Q: What sequence folds into this?
């Protein structure tokens, strides 16, 4: 940029800060900064307050690791849920997708990531030990033993390898380990479904 | 979302606030919020401070309307620039693109928008009267009369109509009105055009 343009320090600092958001390059960051300053300063201040509030108050549920503002999240506290079922998902977004189906009434364990050795994300970072501790925990009146772990990590290379590692770690424990079924998505036409998916659906046919 | 997930108030507020950024839908906003809370809380706080700082300190240059933290921006104050040349651009990003060519040494007038009647953006919103006042201003020692207005609005329908309206408004005034040459590909925005093309268009201005 020319000398005149780089001297607007606050604007440059804002553009750099916006670039720390995932998927935001320098052009997007500039467009966001210009938009907020030109058309939506209340929005800028609202975002600033929301960031501060969330950064200070959002923490991880002691039981399932999802984001919450309490010691234990409302889902884990819900007495109507089946506490013998534990669904393992990669992220709160995946957990929300499971919830939207209305088909699951057990509890969750949210890895908050997936195994990715190249990015330095190993078993510690996804809380594998906490998951094992949860499965091994002595049953209590309000928290019976886990009888089934449902692996609902994504069907990507990293999600599959994460599911594999968890399966290995759970071997020898008195718990059933299942994986979401692979198959043809509802509403899709075979012609447009990738071959690997069709092959799996064929193998897993009921 | 299920009952458990919507009860994380700070997280929901943050997702909604992020959605006010241009080009950010609900999925992107969620991904941004999860990323900041899981991997980059210092980045979240840094962004919060940058937003507050910019929203309170960034204003518009009294002469050219671009973003600045001073009464008059450094570009307008630069004594080495030709004050008889006034280049009209839509945005600070376009101004930055012009500056990067190194081919222009005059001053700017930044419309901070473009005519778009359907969006309620008329001549007042792009500061047409201030532009006319600037052209009509009595020459002073430090600010000679404007002898040429170079229209460098984008070569889009709205940019062309903005250029047309400014041309009409400047008719009858003792000032030459030129337009960037059509070396710039039709339908594209200056911000994304390669520097050589912009430089040629400047030399070939009509």
A:
């Amino acid at each position: 940029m020319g000398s005149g343009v780089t001297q607007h320090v606050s604007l440059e600092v804002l553009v750099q800060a916006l670039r720390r958001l995932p998927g935001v390059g320098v052009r997007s960051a500039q467009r966001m900064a210009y938009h907020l300053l030109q058309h939506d300063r209340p929005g800028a201040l609202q975002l600033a307050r929301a960031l501060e509030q969330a950064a200070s108050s959002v923490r991880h549920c002691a039981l399932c690791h999802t984001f919450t503002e309490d010691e234990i999240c409302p889902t884990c506290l819900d007495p109507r849920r089946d506490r013998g079922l534990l669904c393992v998902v990669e992220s709160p977004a995946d957990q929300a997708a499971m919830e939207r189906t209305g088909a699951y009434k057990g509890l969750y364990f949210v890895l908050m990531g997936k195994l990715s050795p190249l990015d330095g994300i190993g078993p510690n970072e996804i809380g594998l030990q906490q998951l094992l501790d949860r499965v091994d925990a002595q049953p209590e009146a309000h928290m019976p033993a886990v009888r089934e772990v449902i692996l609902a990590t994504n069907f990507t290379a990293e999600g599959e390898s994460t599911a594999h590692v968890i399966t290995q770690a759970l071997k020898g424990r008195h718990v059933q380990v299942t994986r979401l079924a692979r198959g043809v998505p509802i509403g899709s036409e075979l012609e447009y479904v990738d071959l690997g998916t069709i092959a799996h659906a064929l193998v897993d046919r009921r």
Q: What stands out?
A: Chain A touches chain B through 64 residues (CB under 8 Å).
